[in-house]
C-alpha cells in the first residue's frame, strides 16, 4: 500500500511536549504505524521538543520503550522501529523562555530541499497547555521558522471559556493563516465517525427519514470506566462539560444533524465545516433556570479521595438539547458523558418513531422503535434494530432483530487509530476533520451560559457510585419525556 495517493510530502514534524503522555501514547505510535506501511518519505524528520535534558540517543530510547508499551506486539517490526527512531531528534528547551531556541532554529534551517525540489512541509504540534500556544507561535515567527508550507496543530482545550479561547485564537492567528491551523479533536478521526458521513449521504434510503417527521430522538453517550488518573489537576479545573461536551459530544451532534455538504474532502474542508457551524448556531440556548431543567451534574463518590481534597467539579454530565431549524424542530438530543461508569463505550442512538398504525394487534410479543446504533467503541460498527417475525407456524410472533455491521468482521484490514489518520491529514493539508475557529467559538458561546448558571446557583453535583450508569437524575431527565437511555444488550 504505497501508491502515489498514499504517499506523504517530505516533512519536518516538530512536537512540543514531546515527552508527555499524549506524544508517547498516541502521536509517536501513530507515526510508527505509518512508518510500518512505508508511507513516510525517507527525508522526513521527527523533532521532539521538551524541557527534559535528553539528547537524541536518550529520546530514541524513551520512544522505543513507549512503542513497546503502546503498539500491538504483532505490529512491532525491527526494520520499522529502526527507520522511525533514526528520524528522531530532541531539543531541550522551555517553551516559555527565549533561551535555547537557537538549536531548534539551526536544526530546522539546516536541511537540504527534497530531491524533487518541492518545499518541505513543517508541522508544529503543540501538545502543551493552551496558554503556551501564542508564545510558541510568536517565537517561531520571530526566528523566521514560519513558511507558507507550515501547519500548526492545536490540542484541546483551546481556552477555558469564550474569552480565553478568543485570546488564544487571536495569538495563533497573528502568525498563521486560518488554513494553516489544525484544531484537533481525535473523535473525528474514528473510523465509525467518518463512516457516519458515508452512511448518511451515500445511502439514499436514509435521507428521507432523517428529520423530525420520522426520528423521535437521538442519544449520544461517551462513558469511561476509568477515573481522572494522572489528569486530576487539569480535570478538576475543567470538569466534564469543558473536557468532553464542548468539543467531542457537540462535534458528534453536528455530524448527526448537519445538512448535506456540497462535498466531503478537498483542500479547504469548508463544505463540511460550514454545515457543522450552522448546527452549532441553531442550538437552542440553555440559560438561567432552563439549565437546571435540562442538565444533570454528577460526581463519582471517590473523586475527592483520588484528588486528595474535596471538590465540586462534575465528572458526569447529561443534557437535553434541541436544534431550532426546519429539519430537527421538536426532536430532543440527549447527551451524556462521565467517568467511573459501568462501561467503556461511545455510541450514537438514532431512535425512530413508532409506526403510525398498529397492524398486528393480536400478535404475540411487542414492537420496539427502530434504532440505528453507531458504535465508536468498543467494536466499531453499526446496528440497525428492526422488528421481525419469529419463525414458526400459527400466529405472528414479533421479535426484535438487528442487522449488524462490524468493521472488524466486514473489512479484512486494520482500522487506523484516530490520531494516526489525523496526523496524515495534517501532513497532506486536508482540514476537513479539524475544527475551524468559528466552530470552536460557537461551541463555547453555547456552553458558557451553562457554566455561568452552575456558578450562579452553586448546587453540588449529584453523587453516584463507581461502576454504575451514573446518577439517577440522568434517567429522570429522559423519563420526564417518556423515554429511557438505550443501554447495550
UniProtKB/TrEMBL annotation:
This entry's Gene Ontology molecular function terms read: glucose-6-phosphate dehydrogenase activity
- Name all Glucose-6-phosphate dehydrogenase NAD-binding domain ranges: 15-195
Active site positions: 248 (proton acceptor)
Short name of one Pfam family for this protein?
G6PD_N
**UniProt key word Lipid biosynthesis:** no
Pathway-wise, it operates in: Carbohydrate degradation; pentose phosphate pathway; D-ribulose 5-phosphate from D-glucose 6-phosphate (oxidative stage): step 1/3
Q: Which domain of life is it from?
A: Bacteria
> Sorted alphabetically, which PROSITE patterns does this protein's record hold?
G6P_DEHYDROGENASE (PS00069)
- Positions bound to NADP(+): 51, 156
What does it catalyze?
A: D-glucose 6-phosphate + NADP(+) = 6-phospho-D-glucono-1,5-lactone + NADPH + H(+)
Top EC category: oxidoreductase
Asked if the keyword NADP belongs to this entry, the reply reads yes
SUPFAM superfamilies, sorted: Glyceraldehyde-3-phosphate dehydrogenase-like, C-terminal domain (SSF55347), NAD(P)-binding Rossmann-fold domains (SSF51735)
Gene3D superfamilies recorded for this chain? Dihydrodipicolinate Reductase, domain 2, NAD(P)-binding Rossmann-like Domain
Give the binding site residues for substrate.
Answer: 186, 190, 224, 243, 339
EC number(s): the record gives 1.1.1.49
> Residues in domain Glucose-6-phosphate dehydrogenase C-terminal?
197-486
InterPro entries, alphabetically? G6P_DH, G6P_DH_AS, G6P_DH_C, G6P_DH_NAD-bd, NAD(P)-bd_dom_sf
Which UniProt key words apply to this protein?
Carbohydrate metabolism, Glucose metabolism, NADP, Oxidoreductase
Q: What does this protein do?
A: Catalyzes the oxidation of glucose 6-phosphate to 6-phosphogluconolactone.
HAMAP family from the xrefs?
A: G6PD
Q: Hey, which family's this protein in?
A: Belongs to the glucose-6-phosphate dehydrogenase family.
The identity of this protein, by name, is: Glucose-6-phosphate 1-dehydrogenase
Q: Which organism is it from?
A: Nocardioides vastitatis
